[in-house]
């Protein structure tokens, strides 16, 4: 993993870890991992978490995807997720982790990609505040 500076936050050097769990009643026409790998910038940081493993949460597919990406790549990744969800008419559970902070987001056909980015940004800011000792009380 390479840490990449995004300049979006004071703690922007920290990569973001995402766990993507597609919800699938039937196999998708295009697997989510293949959809994401169409964009070269995501090939190295996005992988299948457990090829061939059985089990998992009821109603969720066994295809869990782990992504470790720079914060600057989040908008593009969320747009890819949204377009895949719209095409497949399904949904994806996304856990966004940065430092000790984590949030779970449900992406479905009614989700606004801008709101996804806002939710992820809040978690990233909280992680940056935790690393930096919190917001400046004099500000």
What attributes does this structure have?
alpha+beta, single chain, 5-stranded antiparallel beta sheet, globular, 5 strands, 139 residues
What is the terminal-to-terminal distance? 34 Å
Counted beta strands? 5
Q: Which strand order does the major sheet show? A: 2-3-1-4-5
Question: Approximately how much beta-strand content do the residues carry?
Answer: 15-25%
From N to C, what is the helix and strand string? EHEEHEEH
Global shape: globular
What is the residue-mean pLDDT, rounded to a whole number?
Answer: 75
Instruction: Provide the gyration radius in Å.
Output: 15 Å
Give me the secondary-structure category: alpha+beta
Could you characterize what this model shows?
The chain has 139 residues and is α+β, with helices and mostly antiparallel strands. The chain has helices spanning 32-37, 74-88, 113-132; strands at residues 16-23, 46-48, 65-69, 91-98, 101-107. A five-stranded antiparallel β-sheet has the order 2-3-1-4-5. Helix 2 (74-88) runs antiparallel to helix 3 (113-132). The model is unreliable at 1-12 and 52-62 (pLDDT under 50).
């Amino acid at each position: 993993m390479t840490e990449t500076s995004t300049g979006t936050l004071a703690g922007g050097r920290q990569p973001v870890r995402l766990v993507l769990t597609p919800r699938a009643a039937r196999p998708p026409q295009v697997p989510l991992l293949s959809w994401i790998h169409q964009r070269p910038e995501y090939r190295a940081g996005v992988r299948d978490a457990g090829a061939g493993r059985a089990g998992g949460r009821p109603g969720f597919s066994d295809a869990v995807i782990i992504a470790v990406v720079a914060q600057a790549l989040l908008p593009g990744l969320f747009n890819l997720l949204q377009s895949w969800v719209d095409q497949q008419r399904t949904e994806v559970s996304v856990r966004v982790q940065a430092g000790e902070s984590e949030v779970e987001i449900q992406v479905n056909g009614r989700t606004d990609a801008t709101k996804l980015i806002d939710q992820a940004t809040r978690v990233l800011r909280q992680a940056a505040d935790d690393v930096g000792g919190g917001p400046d009380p004099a500000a």
